[in-house]
Design goal:
The chain is of the alpha+beta class. 22% of the residues lie in helices and 33% in strands. The chain has a single domain, classed as 2-Layer Sandwich (60s Ribosomal Protein L30, Chain: A). The strands form 2 sheets. A 6-stranded mixed β-sheet has the order 1-2-3-8-6-7, covered by helices on one side. Strands 4-5 form a two-stranded antiparallel ribbon. Strand 2 and strand 3 form a beta hairpin. Helix 1 runs parallel beside helix 2.
């Protein structure tokens, strides 16, 4: 049975999708963009600030569902420009100091709201 996960501590869905869905001990978190839920806008700054906000949004959803970053098994990182990879990776890596999850990273033509980074996450208990 699937359970829909939603929290006001992460940005609400801007389309017909859920923030996250849990099925049989696996949590699928939709791609998170760097929107600060307190103001409903993309955070100011560059790729580091945007990645930090994305990770905070992921943390809020993990927490709402009763998971943590240690439960994350896979991430997919979408970047508007691969030249931002190293800076994104620095921030991202600070959340996975030991036993990081599997990951893919892609440059894409465009991301929602004109952001620089979007990250989707899968966690398992």
């Amino acid at each position: 049975m699937k359970k829909i996960i939603s929290t006001t501590k992460a940005p609400g869905a801007i389309g017909p999708y859920s923030q996250a869905v849990e099925v049989n001990g696996t949590l699928y978190i939709s791609g998170q963009v760097p929107v600060d839920p307190a103001i409903g806008k993309v955070v100011e700054g560059g790729i580091k600030e945007q990645t930090e906000q994305v990770m905070k949004n992921i943390a809020a959803i993990l927490d709402e569902a009763g998971y943590s970053f240690t439960d994350v098994v896979k991430s997919t990182c979408l970047l508007s420009d691969m030249s931002n990879f190293a800076a994104m990776n620095e921030v991202y890596g600070s959340y996975y100091k030991e036993n990081p999850p599997a990951r893919a990273a892609f440059a894409v033509k465009e991301l929602p709201l004109g952001v620089m980074v979007e990250i989707e996450t899968i966690a398992v208990k």
